[in-house]
Amino acid sequence: MALLPTGPQWPVLPEYFHDWALVDVETSGLRPGRDRVLSLAVVTLDGYGRQTGAFSTLLNPGCDPGPVHVHGLTRARLAGSPPFEEIAPQLGALLSGRVLVAHNAQFDYDFLAHEFARVRSWVPVSRRLCTLALNRLIAPATPNLKLATLAAHYGVRQERAHDAQDDVRVLTGILQGSLDAAGRLGLDLPLLACPPRQDYKPFVPKTPCPYRNPGRFQAGDGLVQGMKVAVTGETLMSREELIARSVAAGLNMMTSISGQTSLLVTNDSGEGTAKLRRAVAEGVPLVDERTYLRLLDDVRSGEAKGVARSAVAGLRRATATPGEAAAVPRTLTPAVPAQRTTPPVARTGPAGADRPLAGRRVLVLGGTHEEAGAARVQVVELGASAAVNLSARVTDIVLLPGGESDRRMSRITSLGLPVHGAEWLLPPAMAPVPELGSVHQAPAAESRDTAEILVRGEVVDLPEAGATWTVAATWGQLTACDVDVVTFLLDAQEQVAGDEDFVFYGAPEHPDGTVRLATDGPTEQAVSVAVERLPLEVTSVVVAAAIDGDVTFSDVGAVEVVVTRGIGEAPTHRATLDAATTERTMILAEIYRRGEGWRLRAVGQGYDHALADFARSYGVDVAE
User: Can you tell me the distance from the alpha carbon of 296 to that of 281, in angstroms, rounded to the nearest whole number?
Assistant: First the structure.
Protein backbone atom coordinates (compact mmCIF):
# COMPACT_ATOMS: atom_id res chain seq x y z
CA MET A 1 0.00 0.00 0.00
CA ALA A 2 1.61 3.27 -1.09
CA LEU A 3 0.88 5.89 1.53
CA LEU A 4 3.44 8.61 0.95
CA PRO A 5 3.78 10.99 -1.98
CA THR A 6 7.26 12.00 -3.13
CA GLY A 7 7.48 14.47 -0.25
CA PRO A 8 5.49 13.97 2.98
CA GLN A 9 3.22 16.85 3.89
CA TRP A 10 2.78 18.25 7.37
CA PRO A 11 -0.74 17.11 8.37
CA VAL A 12 -3.50 19.62 8.89
CA LEU A 13 -5.77 17.35 10.97
CA PRO A 14 -6.85 19.20 14.14
CA GLU A 15 -6.09 16.19 16.33
CA TYR A 16 -2.48 16.24 15.07
CA PHE A 17 -1.99 19.93 15.88
CA HIS A 18 0.39 20.17 18.85
CA ASP A 19 3.48 22.02 19.97
CA TRP A 20 6.25 19.43 19.84
CA ALA A 21 9.56 18.96 21.66
CA LEU A 22 11.70 16.38 19.84
CA VAL A 23 14.35 14.87 22.12
CA ASP A 24 17.30 12.53 21.86
CA VAL A 25 19.71 11.56 24.65
CA GLU A 26 22.96 9.60 24.63
CA THR A 27 23.65 7.79 27.88
CA SER A 28 26.36 5.94 29.79
CA GLY A 29 24.26 2.76 29.87
CA LEU A 30 20.75 1.41 29.49
CA ARG A 31 19.29 1.65 33.02
CA PRO A 32 17.78 4.98 34.12
CA GLY A 33 18.66 5.88 37.69
CA ARG A 34 21.91 3.94 37.55
CA ASP A 35 23.31 5.40 34.30
CA ARG A 36 23.51 9.05 33.30
CA VAL A 37 22.78 11.32 30.33
CA LEU A 38 25.98 12.28 28.47
CA SER A 39 24.49 14.49 25.77
CA LEU A 40 21.09 15.67 24.69
CA ALA A 41 19.47 17.63 21.90
CA VAL A 42 16.03 19.24 21.64
CA VAL A 43 14.20 20.77 18.69
CA THR A 44 10.81 22.43 19.23
CA LEU A 45 8.14 22.72 16.51
CA ASP A 46 4.79 24.44 16.39
CA GLY A 47 1.59 22.81 15.19
CA TYR A 48 2.46 23.61 11.56
CA GLY A 49 5.85 21.88 11.78
CA ARG A 50 7.86 25.11 11.92
CA GLN A 51 10.95 25.09 14.13
CA THR A 52 10.62 27.40 17.11
CA GLY A 53 13.71 26.51 19.12
CA ALA A 54 16.75 24.24 19.40
CA PHE A 55 19.24 23.27 22.08
CA SER A 56 22.04 20.72 22.35
CA THR A 57 24.87 20.12 24.78
CA LEU A 58 27.33 17.60 26.14
CA LEU A 59 27.02 16.89 29.86
CA ASN A 60 29.53 15.97 32.52
CA PRO A 61 27.89 12.99 34.28
CA GLY A 62 30.49 12.62 37.01
CA CYS A 63 30.83 8.92 36.20
CA ASP A 64 32.32 6.53 33.65
CA PRO A 65 30.85 7.35 30.21
CA GLY A 66 30.22 3.69 29.44
CA PRO A 67 30.28 2.30 25.87
CA VAL A 68 32.50 4.86 24.15
CA HIS A 69 32.61 2.65 21.03
CA VAL A 70 28.87 3.36 20.59
CA HIS A 71 28.56 7.08 21.31
CA GLY A 72 32.18 8.26 21.03
CA LEU A 73 31.91 10.37 24.19
CA THR A 74 35.15 9.93 26.14
CA ARG A 75 35.97 11.36 29.56
CA ALA A 76 38.28 13.85 27.88
CA ARG A 77 35.58 15.01 25.48
CA LEU A 78 33.05 15.44 28.29
CA ALA A 79 35.49 17.26 30.59
CA GLY A 80 34.44 20.87 31.06
CA SER A 81 30.85 20.23 29.97
CA PRO A 82 28.12 21.44 32.34
CA PRO A 83 26.43 19.06 34.76
CA PHE A 84 22.72 18.47 34.27
CA GLU A 85 21.68 20.83 37.06
CA GLU A 86 23.14 23.79 35.17
CA ILE A 87 21.09 23.22 32.02
CA ALA A 88 17.90 21.94 33.74
CA PRO A 89 16.14 25.36 33.79
CA GLN A 90 16.79 25.99 30.09
CA LEU A 91 15.78 22.45 29.14
CA GLY A 92 12.64 22.68 31.28
CA ALA A 93 11.59 25.88 29.52
CA LEU A 94 11.92 24.20 26.12
CA LEU A 95 9.91 21.14 27.16
CA SER A 96 7.20 22.91 29.13
CA GLY A 97 3.71 22.69 27.64
CA ARG A 98 4.82 20.59 24.66
CA VAL A 99 4.37 16.97 23.62
CA LEU A 100 7.71 15.20 24.07
CA VAL A 101 8.66 13.15 20.99
CA ALA A 102 11.40 10.50 20.86
CA HIS A 103 12.13 7.21 19.17
CA ASN A 104 11.58 4.57 21.88
CA ALA A 105 10.29 7.45 23.99
CA GLN A 106 10.12 5.64 27.32
CA PHE A 107 13.91 5.31 27.28
CA ASP A 108 14.51 9.05 26.76
CA TYR A 109 11.68 10.08 29.09
CA ASP A 110 12.84 7.83 31.95
CA PHE A 111 16.42 9.11 31.71
CA LEU A 112 15.22 12.72 31.74
CA ALA A 113 12.87 11.97 34.64
CA HIS A 114 15.73 10.62 36.74
CA GLU A 115 18.00 13.53 35.82
CA PHE A 116 15.31 16.05 36.80
CA ALA A 117 14.66 14.09 40.01
CA ARG A 118 18.32 14.48 40.95
CA VAL A 119 17.74 18.25 41.00
CA ARG A 120 14.41 17.79 42.85
CA SER A 121 12.21 18.56 39.87
CA TRP A 122 10.28 16.68 37.17
CA VAL A 123 9.95 16.58 33.39
CA PRO A 124 7.56 19.46 32.59
CA VAL A 125 5.54 17.65 29.91
CA SER A 126 2.09 16.14 30.26
CA ARG A 127 2.16 13.86 27.20
CA ARG A 128 4.67 12.06 25.03
CA LEU A 129 4.65 10.44 21.59
CA CYS A 130 6.88 7.52 20.65
CA THR A 131 7.68 7.46 16.92
CA LEU A 132 8.56 3.77 17.26
CA ALA A 133 5.08 3.01 18.66
CA LEU A 134 3.46 5.24 16.02
CA ASN A 135 5.22 3.34 13.24
CA ARG A 136 4.24 0.02 14.76
CA LEU A 137 0.66 1.19 14.20
CA ILE A 138 1.42 2.47 10.69
CA ALA A 139 3.43 -0.68 9.80
CA PRO A 140 5.33 0.85 6.87
CA ALA A 141 6.94 -1.35 4.22
CA THR A 142 10.30 -1.50 5.96
CA PRO A 143 12.37 -4.48 7.15
CA ASN A 144 12.43 -3.08 10.71
CA LEU A 145 11.53 0.09 12.62
CA LYS A 146 14.96 1.33 13.64
CA LEU A 147 15.72 5.03 13.38
CA ALA A 148 18.06 4.65 10.37
CA THR A 149 15.59 2.41 8.52
CA LEU A 150 12.68 4.79 9.03
CA ALA A 151 14.89 7.73 8.04
CA ALA A 152 15.59 6.08 4.69
CA HIS A 153 11.91 5.22 4.26
CA TYR A 154 10.77 8.79 4.88
CA GLY A 155 13.57 10.31 2.79
CA VAL A 156 15.68 11.73 5.63
CA ARG A 157 19.47 11.67 5.39
CA GLN A 158 21.25 10.35 8.48
CA GLU A 159 24.81 11.66 8.88
CA ARG A 160 26.05 10.66 12.35
CA ALA A 161 24.32 7.79 14.11
CA HIS A 162 24.26 8.01 17.94
CA ASP A 163 24.92 11.72 17.80
CA ALA A 164 22.12 13.45 19.72
CA GLN A 165 22.05 16.56 17.54
CA ASP A 166 21.93 14.62 14.26
CA ASP A 167 19.50 12.04 15.65
CA VAL A 168 17.00 14.73 16.68
CA ARG A 169 17.29 16.30 13.19
CA VAL A 170 16.53 12.89 11.68
CA LEU A 171 13.68 12.46 14.16
CA THR A 172 12.09 15.68 12.86
CA GLY A 173 11.85 14.23 9.37
CA ILE A 174 10.56 10.91 10.68
CA LEU A 175 7.86 12.68 12.68
CA GLN A 176 6.69 14.55 9.61
CA GLY A 177 6.58 11.42 7.46
CA SER A 178 4.92 9.40 10.23
CA LEU A 179 2.21 12.00 10.85
CA ASP A 180 1.49 12.14 7.12
CA ALA A 181 1.18 8.34 6.90
CA ALA A 182 -0.91 8.15 10.08
CA GLY A 183 -3.25 10.83 8.76
CA ARG A 184 -3.83 8.88 5.55
CA LEU A 185 -4.77 5.84 7.63
CA GLY A 186 -6.91 7.89 10.02
CA LEU A 187 -4.99 6.67 13.07
CA ASP A 188 -5.31 8.20 16.50
CA LEU A 189 -1.88 9.25 17.68
CA PRO A 190 -0.63 7.01 20.53
CA LEU A 191 -0.18 9.94 22.90
CA LEU A 192 0.69 8.77 26.40
CA ALA A 193 -0.08 10.79 29.52
CA CYS A 194 2.96 11.71 31.63
CA PRO A 195 1.68 13.07 34.94
CA PRO A 196 4.36 14.88 36.99
CA ARG A 197 6.24 12.42 39.18
CA GLN A 198 8.76 13.07 41.90
CA ASP A 199 9.18 9.46 42.99
CA TYR A 200 12.02 8.57 40.64
CA LYS A 201 14.85 7.25 42.76
CA PRO A 202 18.41 6.18 42.01
CA PHE A 203 18.77 2.60 40.86
CA VAL A 204 19.56 0.35 43.83
CA PRO A 205 20.08 -3.26 42.72
CA LYS A 206 18.79 -6.05 44.92
CA THR A 207 21.49 -8.61 45.62
CA PRO A 208 20.06 -12.03 44.68
CA CYS A 209 20.29 -14.68 47.38
CA PRO A 210 23.00 -17.15 46.26
CA TYR A 211 21.40 -20.15 47.97
CA ARG A 212 18.51 -22.41 47.08
CA ASN A 213 15.40 -22.44 49.25
CA PRO A 214 15.70 -25.47 51.58
CA GLY A 215 12.01 -25.33 52.49
CA ARG A 216 10.07 -24.56 55.66
CA PHE A 217 11.61 -23.67 58.99
CA GLN A 218 11.26 -26.46 61.55
CA ALA A 219 11.34 -25.59 65.25
CA GLY A 220 14.48 -27.05 66.78
CA ASP A 221 16.31 -27.38 63.44
CA GLY A 222 17.39 -23.74 63.11
CA LEU A 223 17.72 -21.52 60.07
CA VAL A 224 19.38 -22.57 56.80
CA GLN A 225 20.86 -20.26 54.21
CA GLY A 226 18.44 -19.67 51.34
CA MET A 227 15.29 -19.77 53.48
CA LYS A 228 12.67 -17.26 52.36
CA VAL A 229 11.90 -15.00 55.29
CA ALA A 230 9.31 -12.23 55.53
CA VAL A 231 8.78 -9.64 58.26
CA THR A 232 5.48 -7.99 59.17
CA GLY A 233 4.26 -5.47 61.73
CA GLU A 234 6.25 -3.33 64.16
CA THR A 235 9.80 -4.42 65.05
CA LEU A 236 12.02 -3.48 68.01
CA MET A 237 15.10 -3.27 65.80
CA SER A 238 14.85 -1.01 62.78
CA ARG A 239 13.44 -2.92 59.81
CA GLU A 240 16.45 -1.95 57.67
CA GLU A 241 18.96 -3.34 60.21
CA LEU A 242 16.95 -6.53 60.69
CA ILE A 243 16.87 -7.14 56.94
CA ALA A 244 20.57 -6.28 56.54
CA ARG A 245 21.56 -8.79 59.23
CA SER A 246 19.35 -11.45 57.65
CA VAL A 247 20.81 -10.93 54.18
CA ALA A 248 24.34 -11.02 55.59
CA ALA A 249 23.49 -14.42 57.12
CA GLY A 250 22.47 -15.76 53.70
CA LEU A 251 18.69 -15.61 54.05
CA ASN A 252 16.38 -14.57 51.20
CA MET A 253 14.31 -11.64 52.50
CA MET A 254 10.88 -11.40 50.85
CA THR A 255 8.23 -8.72 50.75
CA SER A 256 5.31 -11.12 50.36
CA ILE A 257 3.94 -14.44 51.58
CA SER A 258 3.43 -17.49 49.39
CA GLY A 259 3.39 -21.24 49.76
CA GLN A 260 7.19 -21.14 49.37
CA THR A 261 7.80 -18.85 52.36
CA SER A 262 9.98 -20.54 54.98
CA LEU A 263 9.26 -18.30 57.96
CA LEU A 264 7.39 -15.13 58.99
CA VAL A 265 8.85 -12.88 61.70
CA THR A 266 6.10 -11.09 63.64
CA ASN A 267 5.56 -9.66 67.11
CA ASP A 268 1.78 -9.60 66.58
CA SER A 269 -0.23 -12.29 68.34
CA GLY A 270 -3.56 -11.24 66.88
CA GLU A 271 -4.99 -11.22 63.38
CA GLY A 272 -2.57 -8.42 62.51
CA THR A 273 -1.60 -7.67 58.95
CA ALA A 274 -2.60 -9.18 55.62
CA LYS A 275 0.79 -10.91 55.55
CA LEU A 276 0.10 -12.55 58.90
CA ARG A 277 -3.35 -13.74 57.82
CA ARG A 278 -1.89 -15.11 54.58
CA ALA A 279 0.90 -16.89 56.47
CA VAL A 280 -1.58 -18.56 58.80
CA ALA A 281 -3.67 -19.65 55.81
CA GLU A 282 -0.58 -21.07 54.07
CA GLY A 283 0.71 -22.80 57.20
CA VAL A 284 3.90 -20.73 57.28
CA PRO A 285 5.77 -21.02 60.62
CA LEU A 286 5.77 -17.90 62.81
CA VAL A 287 8.46 -16.70 65.22
CA ASP A 288 8.77 -13.48 67.18
CA GLU A 289 11.62 -11.04 66.69
CA ARG A 290 13.64 -12.00 69.80
CA THR A 291 13.55 -15.69 68.85
CA TYR A 292 14.52 -14.86 65.28
CA LEU A 293 17.53 -12.80 66.39
CA ARG A 294 18.78 -15.75 68.46
CA LEU A 295 18.35 -18.03 65.46
CA LEU A 296 20.37 -15.60 63.33
CA ASP A 297 23.43 -16.35 65.47
CA ASP A 298 23.62 -19.91 64.11
CA VAL A 299 22.50 -20.20 60.47
CA ARG A 300 23.51 -23.46 58.79
CA SER A 301 25.15 -23.53 55.36
CA GLY A 302 22.85 -23.84 52.38
CA GLU A 303 23.10 -25.24 48.85
CA ALA A 304 24.57 -22.76 46.34
CA LYS A 305 22.61 -22.00 43.19
CA GLY A 306 25.66 -22.27 40.96
CA VAL A 307 24.83 -25.46 39.04
CA ALA A 308 21.49 -26.34 37.49
CA ARG A 309 20.03 -29.57 38.78
CA SER A 310 19.03 -32.14 36.20
CA ALA A 311 15.40 -31.75 37.22
CA VAL A 312 15.40 -28.13 36.11
CA ALA A 313 16.28 -28.93 32.50
CA GLY A 314 13.09 -30.81 31.72
CA LEU A 315 10.80 -29.47 34.42
CA ARG A 316 7.11 -30.16 33.67
CA ARG A 317 7.81 -30.26 29.93
CA ALA A 318 6.44 -32.99 27.69
CA THR A 319 8.92 -34.71 25.36
CA ALA A 320 6.90 -33.90 22.25
CA THR A 321 8.65 -32.65 19.15
CA PRO A 322 8.04 -29.01 18.11
CA GLY A 323 5.43 -30.23 15.65
CA GLU A 324 3.57 -32.19 18.30
CA ALA A 325 3.68 -29.37 20.84
CA ALA A 326 1.08 -27.30 18.97
CA ALA A 327 -1.49 -30.09 19.12
CA VAL A 328 -1.03 -30.88 22.82
CA PRO A 329 -0.43 -27.60 24.67
CA ARG A 330 0.56 -27.64 28.32
CA THR A 331 -2.20 -26.43 30.61
CA LEU A 332 -1.31 -23.61 32.97
CA THR A 333 -2.67 -24.33 36.43
CA PRO A 334 -2.99 -21.28 38.66
CA ALA A 335 -5.12 -21.73 41.75
CA VAL A 336 -8.27 -20.28 40.20
CA PRO A 337 -9.65 -22.60 37.50
CA ALA A 338 -9.66 -21.52 33.89
CA GLN A 339 -12.87 -20.24 32.38
CA ARG A 340 -12.24 -21.00 28.71
CA THR A 341 -13.67 -24.30 27.50
CA THR A 342 -13.15 -24.04 23.74
CA PRO A 343 -10.25 -26.14 22.42
CA PRO A 344 -7.15 -24.54 20.94
CA VAL A 345 -6.97 -23.98 17.21
CA ALA A 346 -4.92 -26.55 15.31
CA ARG A 347 -3.41 -26.13 11.88
CA THR A 348 -5.20 -28.03 9.14
CA GLY A 349 -2.30 -28.39 6.76
CA PRO A 350 0.91 -26.89 5.38
CA ALA A 351 1.14 -23.65 3.45
CA GLY A 352 -0.31 -23.95 -0.03
CA ALA A 353 -3.79 -25.01 -1.05
CA ASP A 354 -4.92 -25.33 2.58
CA ARG A 355 -3.57 -21.86 3.43
CA PRO A 356 -4.51 -19.69 0.46
CA LEU A 357 -4.22 -16.41 2.41
CA ALA A 358 -0.58 -16.91 3.43
CA GLY A 359 1.27 -13.59 3.41
CA ARG A 360 -1.86 -11.47 3.76
CA ARG A 361 -2.99 -9.33 6.69
CA VAL A 362 -6.75 -9.18 7.24
CA LEU A 363 -8.77 -6.76 9.37
CA VAL A 364 -12.22 -7.93 10.54
CA LEU A 365 -14.83 -5.20 11.11
CA GLY A 366 -18.29 -5.52 12.67
CA GLY A 367 -20.10 -8.53 14.03
CA THR A 368 -20.57 -9.56 17.64
CA HIS A 369 -17.52 -10.34 19.76
CA GLU A 370 -18.04 -14.08 19.11
CA GLU A 371 -18.61 -13.60 15.36
CA ALA A 372 -15.53 -11.41 14.95
CA GLY A 373 -13.42 -13.84 16.97
CA ALA A 374 -14.59 -16.78 14.87
CA ALA A 375 -13.74 -14.86 11.69
CA ARG A 376 -10.24 -14.14 12.99
CA VAL A 377 -9.75 -17.85 13.73
CA GLN A 378 -10.69 -18.59 10.10
CA VAL A 379 -8.29 -15.91 8.88
CA VAL A 380 -5.41 -17.57 10.74
CA GLU A 381 -6.44 -21.07 9.65
CA LEU A 382 -6.20 -19.86 6.05
CA GLY A 383 -2.64 -18.66 6.60
CA ALA A 384 -3.11 -14.89 7.05
CA SER A 385 -2.43 -12.74 10.10
CA ALA A 386 -5.41 -11.12 11.82
CA ALA A 387 -4.95 -7.37 12.36
CA VAL A 388 -6.54 -5.40 15.20
CA ASN A 389 -5.96 -1.94 13.67
CA LEU A 390 -5.87 -0.49 10.17
CA SER A 391 -2.24 -0.19 9.03
CA ALA A 392 -0.19 0.08 5.85
CA ARG A 393 0.25 -3.71 5.80
CA VAL A 394 -3.44 -4.57 5.86
CA THR A 395 -4.29 -6.21 2.53
CA ASP A 396 -7.96 -7.16 2.98
CA ILE A 397 -11.07 -6.28 4.97
CA VAL A 398 -13.71 -8.77 6.10
CA LEU A 399 -16.96 -6.91 6.74
CA LEU A 400 -19.45 -8.48 9.15
CA PRO A 401 -22.93 -7.06 9.97
CA GLY A 402 -22.60 -3.61 11.52
CA GLY A 403 -19.10 -3.03 10.17
CA GLU A 404 -20.40 -0.54 7.60
CA SER A 405 -20.70 2.08 10.33
CA ASP A 406 -17.06 1.67 11.49
CA ARG A 407 -15.37 5.05 11.24
CA ARG A 408 -12.43 3.45 9.41
CA MET A 409 -14.54 2.53 6.39
CA SER A 410 -14.02 5.93 4.72
CA ARG A 411 -10.25 5.46 4.96
CA ILE A 412 -10.53 1.90 3.68
CA THR A 413 -12.50 3.14 0.67
CA SER A 414 -10.01 5.92 -0.10
CA LEU A 415 -7.11 3.45 0.12
CA GLY A 416 -8.79 1.05 -2.30
CA LEU A 417 -8.56 -1.97 -0.03
CA PRO A 418 -10.63 -4.99 -1.12
CA VAL A 419 -13.65 -5.56 1.14
CA HIS A 420 -15.11 -9.05 1.52
CA GLY A 421 -18.08 -10.62 3.23
CA ALA A 422 -17.82 -13.48 5.72
CA GLU A 423 -18.30 -16.04 2.91
CA TRP A 424 -14.84 -15.11 1.60
CA LEU A 425 -13.38 -17.15 4.48
CA LEU A 426 -15.37 -20.33 3.79
CA PRO A 427 -13.55 -22.87 1.57
CA PRO A 428 -14.26 -24.60 -0.76
CA ALA A 429 -16.71 -21.87 -1.78
CA MET A 430 -14.00 -19.29 -1.12
CA ALA A 431 -13.94 -16.45 -3.61
CA PRO A 432 -10.82 -16.13 -5.81
CA VAL A 433 -7.98 -14.49 -3.94
CA PRO A 434 -6.22 -11.81 -6.01
CA GLU A 435 -2.46 -11.82 -6.04
CA LEU A 436 -0.83 -9.30 -3.74
CA GLY A 437 -0.11 -6.21 -5.79
CA SER A 438 -3.03 -6.60 -8.20
CA VAL A 439 -5.29 -4.27 -6.21
CA HIS A 440 -2.78 -1.91 -4.63
CA GLN A 441 0.94 -1.65 -4.25
CA ALA A 442 2.36 -4.38 -2.02
CA PRO A 443 5.50 -4.07 0.09
CA ALA A 444 8.77 -4.88 -1.60
CA ALA A 445 9.80 -8.52 -1.19
CA GLU A 446 12.66 -7.72 1.16
CA SER A 447 10.35 -5.77 3.50
CA ARG A 448 7.40 -8.16 3.65
CA ASP A 449 6.32 -9.22 7.12
CA THR A 450 7.89 -12.66 7.45
CA ALA A 451 6.66 -13.29 11.02
CA GLU A 452 5.40 -16.78 11.70
CA ILE A 453 1.67 -16.78 12.49
CA LEU A 454 0.89 -18.74 15.65
CA VAL A 455 -2.47 -20.24 16.55
CA ARG A 456 -3.67 -20.42 20.13
CA GLY A 457 -1.74 -23.09 22.04
CA GLU A 458 1.07 -23.34 19.49
CA VAL A 459 4.66 -23.72 20.69
CA VAL A 460 7.88 -22.68 18.94
CA ASP A 461 11.53 -22.84 19.88
CA LEU A 462 13.26 -19.52 20.44
CA PRO A 463 16.58 -19.54 18.58
CA GLU A 464 19.87 -17.84 19.40
CA ALA A 465 21.00 -18.02 23.00
CA GLY A 466 21.69 -14.72 24.68
CA ALA A 467 18.88 -12.86 22.97
CA THR A 468 16.49 -10.46 24.64
CA TRP A 469 12.98 -11.25 23.45
CA THR A 470 10.19 -8.69 23.43
CA VAL A 471 6.52 -9.72 23.67
CA ALA A 472 4.35 -6.75 22.70
CA ALA A 473 0.58 -6.66 23.11
CA THR A 474 -1.60 -4.35 21.02
CA TRP A 475 -5.35 -3.90 21.03
CA GLY A 476 -7.85 -1.78 19.09
CA GLN A 477 -7.38 1.97 19.04
CA LEU A 478 -11.13 2.31 19.52
CA THR A 479 -10.91 0.64 22.95
CA ALA A 480 -12.38 2.87 25.67
CA CYS A 481 -11.13 0.99 28.77
CA ASP A 482 -7.69 0.53 30.29
CA VAL A 483 -5.75 -2.69 29.69
CA ASP A 484 -2.68 -3.59 31.76
CA VAL A 485 0.01 -6.02 30.65
CA VAL A 486 1.69 -7.86 33.53
CA THR A 487 4.38 -10.52 33.86
CA PHE A 488 5.07 -13.30 36.36
CA LEU A 489 8.46 -15.02 36.79
CA LEU A 490 7.51 -18.50 38.01
CA ASP A 491 9.33 -21.39 39.62
CA ALA A 492 8.71 -25.13 39.26
CA GLN A 493 5.55 -24.87 41.40
CA GLU A 494 4.04 -22.15 39.17
CA GLN A 495 4.67 -19.59 41.94
CA VAL A 496 6.64 -16.36 42.16
CA ALA A 497 9.59 -16.39 44.53
CA GLY A 498 8.65 -12.91 45.78
CA ASP A 499 6.74 -9.79 44.87
CA GLU A 500 9.66 -8.57 42.76
CA ASP A 501 8.86 -11.45 40.37
CA PHE A 502 5.57 -9.71 39.52
CA VAL A 503 6.31 -7.01 36.92
CA PHE A 504 3.48 -4.55 36.31
CA TYR A 505 2.79 -0.83 35.82
CA GLY A 506 3.66 -0.06 39.46
CA ALA A 507 6.95 -2.03 39.34
CA PRO A 508 7.87 -2.06 35.64
CA GLU A 509 11.31 -3.64 35.98
CA HIS A 510 12.61 -6.71 37.77
CA PRO A 511 15.40 -5.76 40.22
CA ASP A 512 18.01 -7.72 38.26
CA GLY A 513 16.97 -6.10 34.98
CA THR A 514 16.02 -9.36 33.25
CA VAL A 515 12.36 -8.41 32.67
CA ARG A 516 11.07 -4.94 31.84
CA LEU A 517 7.64 -3.57 30.98
CA ALA A 518 7.43 -0.64 28.55
CA THR A 519 4.34 1.44 27.84
CA ASP A 520 4.67 3.14 24.46
CA GLY A 521 1.06 4.18 23.92
CA PRO A 522 -2.47 3.85 25.31
CA THR A 523 -3.12 0.64 23.34
CA GLU A 524 0.30 -1.00 23.40
CA GLN A 525 2.59 -2.41 26.08
CA ALA A 526 5.64 -4.62 25.70
CA VAL A 527 7.61 -6.97 27.94
CA SER A 528 11.32 -7.55 27.28
CA VAL A 529 12.88 -10.74 28.67
CA ALA A 530 16.64 -11.41 28.76
CA VAL A 531 16.16 -15.17 28.89
CA GLU A 532 19.79 -16.21 29.35
CA ARG A 533 20.17 -14.00 32.44
CA LEU A 534 17.11 -15.35 34.25
CA PRO A 535 17.87 -17.20 37.52
CA LEU A 536 17.88 -20.99 37.21
CA GLU A 537 14.89 -21.15 39.56
CA VAL A 538 12.77 -19.27 37.02
CA THR A 539 11.32 -21.95 34.76
CA SER A 540 8.75 -19.81 32.94
CA VAL A 541 7.77 -16.20 32.29
CA VAL A 542 4.03 -15.65 31.88
CA VAL A 543 2.77 -12.52 30.10
CA ALA A 544 -0.89 -11.63 30.71
CA ALA A 545 -3.35 -8.81 30.11
CA ALA A 546 -5.97 -7.58 32.56
CA ILE A 547 -8.83 -5.09 32.34
CA ASP A 548 -9.58 -2.63 35.09
CA GLY A 549 -13.16 -2.21 36.28
CA ASP A 550 -16.25 -4.17 35.29
CA VAL A 551 -15.69 -4.32 31.53
CA THR A 552 -14.54 -7.53 29.83
CA PHE A 553 -12.58 -8.54 26.75
CA SER A 554 -15.77 -8.37 24.73
CA ASP A 555 -15.38 -4.58 25.10
CA VAL A 556 -11.71 -4.70 24.09
CA GLY A 557 -11.81 -7.21 21.27
CA ALA A 558 -8.79 -9.14 20.12
CA VAL A 559 -5.27 -8.64 21.46
CA GLU A 560 -2.42 -9.05 19.02
CA VAL A 561 0.86 -10.43 20.37
CA VAL A 562 4.00 -9.57 18.40
CA VAL A 563 7.34 -11.17 19.27
CA THR A 564 10.67 -9.59 18.29
CA ARG A 565 14.34 -10.05 19.11
CA GLY A 566 15.01 -6.67 20.69
CA ILE A 567 13.47 -3.24 20.17
CA GLY A 568 12.58 -2.05 16.68
CA GLU A 569 13.43 -5.36 15.03
CA ALA A 570 11.22 -7.18 12.54
CA PRO A 571 8.63 -9.45 14.18
CA THR A 572 9.50 -13.13 14.34
CA HIS A 573 6.06 -14.35 15.49
CA ARG A 574 2.50 -13.03 15.65
CA ALA A 575 -0.65 -14.30 17.34
CA THR A 576 -4.10 -12.71 17.57
CA LEU A 577 -6.01 -13.84 20.65
CA ASP A 578 -9.67 -13.43 21.60
CA ALA A 579 -10.99 -13.98 25.12
CA ALA A 580 -14.59 -14.91 25.89
CA THR A 581 -17.24 -12.29 26.60
CA THR A 582 -17.10 -12.61 30.40
CA GLU A 583 -13.34 -12.71 30.85
CA ARG A 584 -11.32 -9.93 32.46
CA THR A 585 -7.85 -11.49 32.53
CA MET A 586 -6.05 -13.39 29.77
CA ILE A 587 -2.70 -15.16 29.59
CA LEU A 588 -1.18 -14.02 26.31
CA ALA A 589 2.10 -15.90 26.07
CA GLU A 590 4.56 -17.97 28.04
CA ILE A 591 8.33 -18.21 27.61
CA TYR A 592 9.63 -21.36 29.28
CA ARG A 593 12.72 -23.51 29.62
CA ARG A 594 13.08 -26.56 27.43
CA GLY A 595 16.33 -28.44 28.03
CA GLU A 596 19.14 -25.98 27.42
CA GLY A 597 16.94 -23.63 25.40
CA TRP A 598 13.72 -21.66 25.59
CA ARG A 599 10.30 -21.97 23.99
CA LEU A 600 7.42 -19.60 23.37
CA ARG A 601 3.77 -20.57 23.66
CA ALA A 602 0.88 -18.46 22.35
CA VAL A 603 -1.64 -19.15 25.13
CA GLY A 604 -4.88 -17.16 24.86
CA GLN A 605 -6.31 -18.53 28.13
CA GLY A 606 -8.97 -16.33 29.72
CA TYR A 607 -10.31 -15.99 33.27
CA ASP A 608 -13.39 -14.30 34.67
CA HIS A 609 -11.69 -12.87 37.75
CA ALA A 610 -9.74 -9.63 38.11
CA LEU A 611 -5.98 -9.12 38.21
CA ALA A 612 -5.69 -9.23 42.03
CA ASP A 613 -7.11 -12.76 42.25
CA PHE A 614 -5.06 -13.82 39.26
CA ALA A 615 -1.85 -12.50 40.88
CA ARG A 616 -2.67 -14.23 44.19
CA SER A 617 -2.98 -17.55 42.36
CA TYR A 618 0.71 -17.21 41.48
CA GLY A 619 1.71 -16.35 45.06
CA VAL A 620 1.82 -12.56 44.85
CA ASP A 621 0.87 -10.79 48.07
CA VAL A 622 -1.84 -8.34 46.96
CA ALA A 623 -3.14 -5.98 49.64
CA GLU A 624 -6.91 -5.81 50.05
Answer: 26
